[in-house]
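2024-03-11 09:14:02 INFO worker-7 job=invfold-0412 stage=load source=structure_tokens
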């Protein structure tokens, strides 16, 4: 029997960077990039744009906005019950795989509505066949359920039981506030093909990974994940330094440990950071709590040598845009030569109309 190869922590880091297009920027279209990355976190409207700017050569804000209008990209509640931007071609599989578990969570929280669920969903599907505001959807769920759905859960009940997508301008650059939803009108993928497609996309974008990592990204139960892994055979198998079993797709990149790794400024809630149960391949343990707290504020992580080393933020006042870099700990040597140019590149992207742009290095700490 062939021994299972043990991948070092560094090999896991650079394999993630390669698959997440963070070793070198690629000149590929936005929709193709989103498919390659499986999905982009979209809880915060600018995040998908910043994420692609960090990964693609020549990316423009207009690419995502045009794709949303043309419906080649969609924004919807999917993995982990959070908002993601996905390719429209992937949505039928991802939604079919995710919604049974999301629906189960919502049913548990609203047991009084279960006897009326079929009637509620039928009425809601008819109501959202055309775009509806979130307030209108809440009112309709309240009416259909006769008050049996908890008031604070009305919108979640609708979007976790019925696949719906956001209607532009939701998802546009810097678009915040209330939005409208419309029911997905085309057929969803059937199981088990749906879960197979989601697990395959995850491994392509984030592998090698454990079953626990797949579950952390998808929120799927192991009884759904394990048959998908079996159906995807033959898979590659590795272990990590802790002895955990890792799964991977044949032909996926595994760069050498000594590959050159550039500085990158990442998006808020960037999937590269949060899409594992064990995040140490990109996020050192000692900084985990700081970064998870950061996601609640308008600050983003940046990478040095492939690991999260600090946070960045920016603000623009009276024509001057300032991007601030704050390392988590004091620098033992000189700053990476590409840190300031990368920050300047990002600031030009997020503040294109600024008359003056300034990069500041703040003292280490929170």
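2024-03-11 09:14:09 INFO worker-7 stage=emit residues=366
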């Amino acid at each position: 029997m062939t021994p299972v190869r043990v991948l070092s922590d560094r090999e896991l880091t650079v394999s993630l960077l390669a698959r997440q297009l963070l070793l070198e920027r690629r000149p590929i279209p936005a929709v193709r990039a989103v498919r390659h990355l499986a999905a982009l976190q979209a809880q915060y409207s600018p995040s998908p744009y910043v994420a692609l700017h960090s990964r693609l050569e020549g990316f423009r804000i207009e690419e995502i906005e045009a794709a949303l209008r043309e419906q080649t990209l969609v924004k919807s509640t999917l993995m982990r019950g959070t908002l993601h931007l996905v390719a429209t071609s992937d949505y039928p599989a991802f939604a079919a795989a995710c919604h049974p578990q999301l629906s189960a969570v919502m049913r548990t929280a609203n047991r009084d509505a279960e006897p009326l669920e079929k009637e509620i969903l039928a009425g809601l599907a008819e109501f959202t066949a055309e775009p509806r505001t979130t307030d209108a959807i809440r009112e309709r769920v309240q009416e259909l359920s006769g008050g049996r759905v908890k008031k604070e859960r009305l919108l979640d009940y609708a979007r976790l039981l019925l696949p719906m997508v956001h209607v532009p301008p939701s998802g546009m650059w810097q678009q915040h506030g209330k939005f409208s939803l419309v029911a997905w009108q085309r057929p969803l993928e059937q199981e088990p093909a749906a879960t197979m497609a989601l697990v395959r996309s995850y491994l392509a974008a984030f592998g090698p990974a454990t079953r626990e990592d797949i579950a952390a990204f998808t929120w799927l139960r192991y009884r759904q994940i394990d048959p998908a892994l079996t159906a995807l055979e033959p898979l590659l198998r590795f272990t990590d330094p802790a002895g955990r079993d890792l799964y991977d797709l044949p032909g996926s990149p595994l760069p050498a440990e000594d590959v050159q790794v550039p500085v990158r400024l990442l998006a808020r809630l960037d999937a590269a950071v949060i899409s594992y149960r064990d995040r140490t391949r990109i996020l050192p343990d000692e900084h985990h709590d700081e970064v998870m707290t950061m996601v609640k504020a308008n600050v983003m992580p940046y990478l040095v040598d492939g690991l999260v080393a600090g946070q960045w933020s920016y603000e623009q006042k009276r024509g001057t845009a300032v991007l601030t870099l704050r390392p988590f700990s004091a620098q033992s040597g000189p700053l990476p030569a590409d840190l300031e140019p990368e920050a300047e590149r990002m600031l030009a992207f997020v503040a294109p109309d600024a008359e003056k742009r300034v990069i500041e290095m703040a003292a280490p700490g929170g």
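2024-03-11 09:14:09 INFO worker-7 stage=report msg="The first strand starts at residue 5 and ends at 6."
2024-03-11 09:14:10 INFO worker-7 job finished
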